[in-house]
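dude i think i finally got it to work??
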Amino acid sequence: MVTYSHSKLQTFEQCNLKYKFRYIDKIKVEIEETIESFLGHCVHRTLEFLYNEKMQNDKILEIDQLIEFYLKNWNSEFDERFLIVNGDLKAEDYFNKGIKFLTNYYSRNYPFDEKTLATERKIFLDLDSERKIIGFVDRLAYNEKENVYEIHEYKTGSLKTSRQLEFDRQLALYSL
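look at this
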């Protein structure tokens, strides 16, 4: 069975030769990650830690604990060879962006009342008998006040316009 993901499809749309090299020929690149994607991974892991502590231990972390977790992740996995797409910025600038994202998120969402049901949940959608799409939900929550389930997707890149969101594949897959 052939399995696609949002990122695989996005790679194909960017450049079908890049898709071939990465997913068919499985050619390894010297540096696979950009500083931007590394920042996103560190912020994701930190928010996953926050909600797992709340979900599993009924514990609300203090902002200092959250930042300490982020710092440890950043320092343990940072590689000087990460590609920095925006040449005007340094790695330290990206690290500080992560601190800002997390502190803003924390202050907007504290005390994290929504009932988190899962973090980093793998989902599948069968397209037909031979193909399916795989995805990961950053956080699945149940909003008791509204009596609805919510899918939370964390983004550290630039914000999308309403028009762009209308055609966002990832959101469409979540709705299915």
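The chain is about 50% helix and 20% strand.
im so relieved honestly
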